[in-house]
Amino acid sequence: MTDAPVLLSLQNITKRFGPLIANNAISLDLHRGEILALLGENGAGKTTLMNILFGHYVQDEGDVRVLADHGALATLPPGSPGAALKAGLGMVHQHFTLAENLSGLDNIRLGTEPLLSFGREATARAKVKKITAESGLDVDLDRRVADLTVGEKQRIEILKALYRDAKVLILDEPTAVLTPQEAEGLFVVLRRLAENGLGVIFISHKLGEVLAVSHRILVLRAGTKAGELVTAKADRRAIADLMVGKAVAEVVRIPALPGETLMEFDGVSLNGAGRQALSGVNLKLRSGEIVGLAGVSGNGQSGIAALISGLAVPSSGTLRLYGEAITKASPRDLVEAGVARMPEDRQHDGVVGTMSVADNIAIEEVRSPAFSKMGLLDRKAMRERATSAISGYDVRCPGPDAEARLLSGGNVQKLILARVLEREPRVILANQPTRGLDVGAQAEVHRRILAARDRGAAVLVISEDLDELFALADRFVVVHAGELADAGSSESLDRGTIGLMMAGQARTPVGIAS
Amino acid sequence: MSLRLEPRDHASVSLKLTVSLAAGVIALLLVAVPVIAAGGTPLEAYWLMLQGAFGSMFALSETLNRATPLILTGLAAAVAFRAKLWNIGAEGQLYIGALAAVCVGSGLMQLPPVLMIPTVMVAGFLAGGLMMVIPTIIKQRFGADEVVITLLLNFVVILFIQMLVEGVLKDPLSMGWPQSVPLIAEAKLPKLLPRLRMHWGLITGLVAALILWLMVRKTVLGFEIRAVGENKAAARFAGIPVDATMLKVALISGGLAGLAGVGEVAGVKDYLSSDLSPGFGYSGIVVAMLAGLSPVGTVIAAVFVAAVFVGADSMSRATGISSYIADLVVALSLLCVLVGSFFLRFSVKFERRQVGA
Q1: Which pLDDT score, from 0 to 100, does residue A512 have?
Q2: What is the DSSP letter of A175?
Q3: Comparing C-alpha atoms, which of B235, B238, B233, B224 is closest to residue A419?
Q4: Measured between CA atoms, how close is B355 to chain A, in angstroms?
Q5: Tell me: the pLDDT tens digits for A128-174?
Q6: Judgement on whether residues A281 and A307 belong to the same structural domain of the protein
Q7: Which residues numbered 330-349 in A keep a CB inside 8 Å of some CB on B?
Q8: What are the pLDDT digits (tens) for B8-25?
Q9: Where is the chain membrane-spanning (chain B) (predicted)?
Q10: How many domains are contained in chain A?
Q11: A123 falls within a domain
Q12: Is any Cβ of chain A less than 8 angstroms from the Cβ of B8?
């Protein structure tokens, strides 16, 4: 692999944000046809490095060099996304940069040509179709991006980069939003693209997939290069320690002791915008048990989450909490009844970015006597609670008065955990609890969820990460096209079975099959 | 060299003050151009404006009298805009508040001033508030845009007032002028000082600003308004009743504009006419924007805008330069503040571009 020409070379990139050194003299080479994994915890400097590469930030020191048409490496002018694009760098961001109100095809074309140009649409469509056929990135090009699932949006993003004839494709945490099958599909696509001569930089903190897809691994830790290794010779454990800088403790779990049913879906249907729709869902959440909800994104998970969050009520059927039917949608009632909810999109639904950490921790209970009296806020109590939450849940932030928007994704999730778990909730909805979190934070979240279960809480974990579900769930349910199927105890299941159910193939009962 | 913008994490207080001050100075520098074009000397013109606005007890009283409704309409805009409720209808709410004051205070009931004045104020507040609550309900139920509704309601209300003051409310003793019957003496707001036009409406405005300031910082309602305004989705998810909070904001916002109308009727004019307000409702939006939607800032901005207008009138009489210069000063200040707010969000960096190897 190393004898292929170098496509891209970073040399001694250094970037400081005030006193923080986000990148400290990082160098890397990417060869033609190579998949290079950039591995590191949150805050290790992966995204900063890629933002510099792509011209969103200007480095304080160092050069970015890209193979130019004349066959030699040319230095890219810093801080110019246009030049990066022109040099053939394509980036798929973790947070998508799509115009939601335009179709997929329009998004792919956006920025490369005038939108109101007759005849060009057909040319563009043909080109996209060709890329699709070569890479297997299948997606409906004519639907509005707003109506696409997260996975489909990502495919549009990748197509967008390929449409611009990218020589180097950079993917920032691409599998965070995919099912195992979709992720496997993505890997196939990436391998095929690499074989055709593309250079790929794959940013991730998931060891498994990095080992599965990459040729070479570059590990970043706290802004510096912690190590660089060839994947074929790499050892899982060694890389994890390299990433974190210390040995990661395994999460221990004891068998569940399910108790009484705390929340029950009884033939629940939900009408509404396609992705939320549910039909005839039956589900029992029992005390002391974690139920894992698997499914391809957009098959009704958001409907189930909306019902448990109090954002919707069943169109038909009954949703019972502690045996009583919930008839009106009110997040506050559910919070007061002891339901903890972790939103799927924590930046959007979980925190008010411009309010302080203390405000965001108190926000669900701001009317309770703990934080207010006679309509007046008890700022002191709010600060005290925030201070204890910051230390108890290891929320890394400048302090209780810091604005929540300054927190990283992992720390926002810890903030939400601190907010909902401190009340010792009886029912917990954990929707994508560790999406985008690093190994250390992930283990922490899992430990907290397991501890809540052991305390007697009924937990529903919705996740697109099957490893996570197998690590947590006592029992599996799978949602497909708005219908929920019971998959049974997690001991009797393997990934293949779940994958088939996610694809809509009903599980054949073992008794009949044999 | 190239210029780059990077988002700021946090803007310090001193930076905010510097930017506001710089915006004012730049606005004055820009206005110097038309002043010179009109044949005046900028420094002299500004000095005369300052004299005209603050140079005597009478001037100060006129400025504060002019600032009174602007404080209230400014607060009306500020509180609504914070919650991302775009109330452009303060002008109409002001008139409806004034109408309520006349309906209640022109002989319908006779109470001692200590009861009569609060009654008139409550009536004006509720009437103005209702004028904002209705568009908000329409927005929540049917998704109609409140900007359009409130803006258009302004014209509806003014025509309605015209109809009334030329019809059922017309004062038979007004010698044919289209104006309503006057308020009874008990309903009138006392003057703050003898022989000056400043009245108790100013105190109402200052108290309202203080209450709003406390509300935003110290109360659950203020917390909820902030949360709803800054991130509606997260507020709803966290259990804050978004629609109810918006209705409270609408009531407060419209009510404050209604109080401005009460002040003008009960403090200055005594009767209602369709020229009660020279656009106080619209100027309130400018005031709130100049103040960065802060309640205390609104008071300062209202006095500034009032001083510019009163001062410009006086300067105009002395120099012959048109008093429209006041509109220019206010408009340019607003533009400068808006440009300035950009520098609060981003830091500008100059960097040398490297030439490709």
Answers
A1: 36
A2: G
A3: B238
A4: 7
A5: 888 888 777 778 888 888 888 777 888 888 888 888 888 899 988 88
A6: yes
A7: 330-336, 341, 343, 348-349
A8: 766 677 787 788 788 888
A9: 21-43, 63-81, 93-109, 115-135, 147-165, 198-216, 237-260, 280-312, 324-344
A10: 3
A11: yes
A12: no
pLDDT value for A258: 85
- Structure-block tokens of residue A103: 């179709």
pLDDT tens, residue by residue, A356-414: 999 999 999 888 888 988 889 999 999 999 999 998 888 888 888 888 888 877 788 88
Please say if the pLDDT value at position A245 is more than 70.
no
Q: CB B357 to CB A367 under 8 A?
A: no
Task: Report chain B's mean pLDDT, rounded to a whole number.
Answer: 89
- 3-state SS, one letter per residue, for chain B: CEEEEEECCCCCHHHHHHHHHHHHHHHHHHHHHHHHHCCCCHHHHHHHHHHHHHCCHHHHHHHHHHHHHHHHHHHHHHHHHHCCCCCCCHHHHHHHHHHHHHHHHCCCCCCCHHHHHHHHHHHHHHHHHHHHHHHHHHHHHHCCCHHHHHHHHHHHHHHHHHHHHCCCCECCCCCCCCCECCCCHHHCCCECCCCCCCECHHHHHHHHHHHHHHHHHHEHHHHHHHHHHHCHHHHHHCCCCHHHHHHHHHHHHHHHHHHHHHHHHHHHHCCCCCCCCCCHHHHHHHHHHHCCCCHHHHHHHHHHHHHHHHHHHHHHHHHCCCCCHHHHHHHHHHHHHHHHHHHHHEEEEEECCCCCC
How much is the ipTM here?
0.82
Q: How sure is the predictor about A274, in pLDDT bands with cuts at 50, 70 and 90?
A: low
Same domain, A384 and A432: no
Does A78 contact B351 at a Cβ distance shorter than 8 Å? yes
Q: Which two tokens stand for residue A83?
A: 């030049």
Helix (H, G, I), strand (E, B) or coil at A330: coil
Q: Which domain holds residue A298?
A: 252-338+425-513
**A410 and A429 in a common domain:** no
- What one-letter code names the amino acid at B102? V
Query: CB-CB: which of A63, A77, A331 is closest to B236?
Result: A331
Rounded to two decimals, the pTM is 0.76
Least CB-CB distance to B354: which of A75, A352, A376?
A75
Cβ contact B220–A406 (<8 Å)? no
Alpha-carbon span B37 to B51, nearest angstrom: 22
For chain B, give every domain's residue range. Answer: 68-291
pLDDT of residue A493: 81
Residue from A57, A352, A382, A412 whose CB has the most chain B CBs within 10 Å, to mutate? A352
Percent of chain A with pLDDT over 90: 16
Q: Is A392 helix (H, G, I), strand (E, B) or coil?
A: helix
Checking if the pLDDT of A208 tops 90, the result is: no
Q: Is pLDDT of A494 > 60?
A: yes
- Judging contacts by C-beta atoms under 8 Å, the chain B residues touching residue A341 are 237
3-state secondary structure of A223: coil
> Are both A328 and A443 inside the same structural domain?
yes
**DSSP reduced 3-state for A203:** strand
* A120 pLDDT higher than 80: no
